[in-house]
Amino acid sequence: RNLSPFTPTVSRKTGSRVSRMFSMSHKSPPPKVPQPNRLDEVYEALKKGLTAYLEVHQLELEKLSTQIRESKRNSRLGFLYDLDKQVKSIERFLRRLEFHASKIDELYEAYCIQRRLRDGAHNMVKAYSTGSPGSREARESLAEASKGYKEYTENMCLLENELESQLGEFHIRMKGLAGFARLCAGDQYEIFMKYGRQRWKLRGRIEVNSKQVWDSEEMVFLPLVTEFLSIKVTELKSLANHVVVGNVSCETKDLFAALPQVVAVDINDLGTLKLSLEVTWNPFDKDDQPSAASSVNKASTVNKRFSTYNQSPPDTPSLREQAFYVSVHQAGLLRRHGQW
Known about the structure:
By secondary structure, the chain is an alpha+beta fold. It has helices spanning 36-71, 77-130, 136-164, 295-311, 319-336, and strands spanning 2-3, 8-10, 169-178, 188-195, 198-206, 212-214, 218-221, 229-236, 242-250, 261-266, 274-282.
């Protein structure tokens, strides 16, 4: 796990108005105006995250294959069967990842084609608009270019929305507030996160011995292309006296990572109050969740079992195995003397 701070993108604001409680909602409809520059940045970050995902699972696959080769002579069949199931599960997951990456590449390539066509139509509209619009041919060409520009713009918006639906999920776990001398026992805080149409509101209390109790600890956000994650922290002092500690907007394209990340968000200007979150990116949606998505965690369990088996390897055969070996030896002797 990496400890990397979020990068604030908007200046912090303070106020006294209390936010309303919002419920979780789905993604926004296709945008009316495409954002090609922003999509380029998200695509590069997404490809980097998918490549890291493939590398992590490929290393885990090689590690399991090495364990299988080393344990064939000195292990139980049940343990080998468990390792083999893990290998096949990771192999299936790798194929899903490769197919997912190729699908994203196809969508991005189609988006780039529509963008070039849109730029060409825009240049034509600009050229016909600056010229003399008196001739009939010029007016018809201008209308045709304008129609093409509108059509390519709509196609870009649809492809942008489709690519956004392939970004997977962000699983966010609340780790707590870190405030050094800023936090005291009895303080109550409210955290409100806004990500597009998605909302998460939770309240917490600072207990004795710096222990923190929150009414909610986990949330799943669907990644968005053009939106930033807005975090607002309010200190609840009395019924009508709430103080907004800070309101920050954070970049999310750096969260496309293979392993869970613990990120620290500076809430106030001085950085004396930080919000700690654990973010895990899943490249697939919950409706398209492969069985091997947690293969790395499963493999760590297998590693523990592997060390346990190595502590007491079954070198001495059991009584049943001894009887089997004796029967095989006797059958070989009978076959050698022609009696069987």
